[in-house]
Design goal:
CATH superfamily of the largest domain: Glycosidases
Helix content: 25-40%
CATH class of the largest domain: Alpha Beta
Strand order of the largest sheet: 1-2-5-8-9-12-13-14
Strand content: 15-25%
Shape: globular
Radius of gyration: 24 Å
CATH architecture of the largest domain: Alpha-Beta Barrel
Number of strands: 22
Number of domains: 2
């Protein structure tokens, strides 16, 4: 409740509180519960967001000269925590953060035709039981989670179960009872998308192996050199005795991943490369994560944010909302929503964003309120590995914010969407162009400040009203374009592409005549008369709420 009070004071300061005719005190809206289906998620590459501790910038003798934007640049967990404390995410209306993996990565660089590349992105795991020194320490991780929760922000931990990191002189391949190194995936059917390696020199974990496996020789050697072998074995013995599951590769990794839930209270996973792992493995991960989350809550009742269960978001490459519940491999259709996942990333939104508002909103509402009822999708306009985002040249930044943050489903802001960080970097190769360092210096630019304020107004409105992401959509007027969203007792009215100056907005029977409502965007407060309100503002958008 303390954070809600501070937010309201901040809103008064930023947006003002003048009505059409007189200055009034803005009423505080009823605090709505957090709903995952309506979350406003911020995603950053940990290494590229903010450097909070320069002392950890160089670890494991990573001194090879990297190709442009393919080496570590200093961002770390301490940097994320710093920005949470500064209120950056509060002001942006963020209630969940997903940051790229921070577990220990391969120590060496690779060169697969793009120049020397280090595992700054976090998807080349060397050891699932340890944090990478470039990203910080166990204490940094704990502080990040604790600070986020103090701000009412949930944490999605980015996890990989499909593959280890590439093989290098410093990073030997794991034993053949743990990984396969061929064949490469050809995507002809289910087997050739699952039982194969994603790319050359990326060993594929045998998640389909049901037999018990000894630990990888390289991992045992590493643990012994670090003096951790006996403790790690003790914990593994306890886990397998408690659960009764086989000591198979997938179950080892599930143990390691769920430790972070049990020990730190992370709220959910963003799961990498979903379609490249057998769906029953995801069910197993989800079941163990729910158990771990319940155990953490029981052990830390004072830190529990709500009664939500553990949440799982999947990166099922190529999935779009129009596919509804099933992903088609050609010879087999799989319902990943029935196999551990609450939500799947919607790769379709970037193309749907070219449509008009009502086409997008009505279509998404229909599917989410029917075939995907109780589940959801995550929309994005840009990401770390999508070379064809909605607005690669950043010429539609206001439109990007409006469509992303007002579309039904979860919204995912990729770091720099809100500050016009460039997605075209000279001298880069492949997806490196999407991964430049956060452009904090541009916040001194008036145009960028204005753009950020637009994202902030929409984001804080979305955060306060789960009806935007999880509610039912209804168009009230086509011209001017006005619609309502309703989720339980949370009702909002939104108008887009309106005229500047004096405008009449239909609210219908959503608010009773005589009711005082507020336009979150302009900060003005008006009274409902004959199912309408009249607002005089310089903006072409209104965000109305009680």
């Amino acid at each position: 409740m303390k954070h809600l009070f501070l937010f309201c004071i901040l809103s008064l300061f930023i947006f003002g509180c003048k009505s059409n005719s007189s200055e009034v005190v803005k009423t505080t809206p009823k605090q709505q519960p957090f709903v995952w289906e309506a979350a406003n998620v911020y995603f950053m590459l940990t290494d590229r967001f903010n450097n909070g501790n320069k002392a950890n910038d160089l670890a494991y003798d990573r001194t090879n000269e990297p190709a442009k934007l393919r080496g570590f640049m200093g961002g770390d967990m301490a940097g994320i925590t710093q920005k949470i404390k500064e209120g950056y995410f509060d002001e942006l209306g963020i209630n969940a953060i997903w940051f790229s993996p921070v577990l220990e990565q391969i120590h060496d660089s690779t060169d697969e035709g793009t120049g020397n590349t280090y595992a700054f992105h976090g998807y080349w795991t060397k050891d699932w039981t340890n944090f990478d020194a470039n990203f910080g320490t166990e204490a940094d991780f704990a502080q990040l989670i604790k600070t986020a929760h103090e701000h009412g922000i949930r944490i999605l931990m980015d996890v990989v179960m499909n593959h280890t990191g590439p093989v290098t002189e410093k990073d030997p391949v794991w034993d053949n009872n743990w990984v396969r190194t061929e064949p490469g995936c050809s995507y002809q059917n289910y087997d050739t998308a699952v039982s194969c390696t994603l790319v050359k020199n990326l060993p594929d974990v045998l998640t389909n192996r049901e037999e018990a496996s000894d630990l990888p020789t390289a991992l045992v050697k590493k643990w012994k050199a670090e003096g951790r072998y006996e403790q790690e074995m003790k914990e593994l013995d306890e886990f397998f005795q408690k659960t009764g599951v086989t000591r198979s590769p997938k179950n080892y990794i599930i143990k390691w991943l769920t430790d972070y839930v049990r020990e730190y209270g992370i709220d959910g996973y963003r799961v990498d490369t979903v379609k490249h792992v057998e769906e029953n493995a995801w069910n197993s991960l989800n079941n163990q994560a729910k158990i771990a989350f319940a155990e953490w809550k029981k052990a830390h009742p004072e830190a529990v944010l709500d009664n939500n269960e553990f949440f799982m978001l999947g990166e099922l490459y190529g999935y779009g909302i129009s596919q509804k519940r099933f992903y088609d491999f050609g010879d087999k259709k799989v319902d990943y929503y029935a196999n551990g996942f609450n939500n799947l990333i919607n790769f379709q939104f970037k193309s749907d964003a070219h449509k008009n508002y009502e086409d997008i909103f009505a279509t998404y509402d229909s599917i989410l309120q029917n075939e995907l009822k109780g589940k959801s999708i995550m929309n994005y306009i840009s990401s770390h590995d999508d070379g064809e985002p909605f607005d690669k040249d950043r010429t539609k930044t206001y439109e990007s914010a409006t469509k992303l943050l007002l579309t039904p489903g979860i919204s995912q802001i990729y770091y720099g969407d809100e500050t016009q960080r460039s997605l075209r970097i000279e001298g880069t190769n492949g997806d490196a162009t999407l991964r430049s360092f956060m452009n904090w210096e541009d916040l001194n630019n008036t145009e960028i400040k204005d753009l950020l304020e637009h994202w902030q107004k929409l984001g804080t409105f979305r955060k306060a009203h789960p009806s935007i992401g999880a509610g039912t959509h209804k168009m009230l007027s086509n011209n001017p374009y006005v619609f309502s969203r309703t989720y339980r007792d949370d009702i909002v009215i939104i108008g887009l592409d309106l005229v500047k100056g004096n405008k009449e907005i239909i609210v219908g029977d959503n608010f009773e005549n005589g009711t005082t409502i507020t336009d979150h965007y302009s900060g003005k407060t008006v009274t409902v008369e004959n199912g309408k309100v009249t607002i005089d503002s310089e903006f072409t958008i209104v965000l109305l709420h009680l």
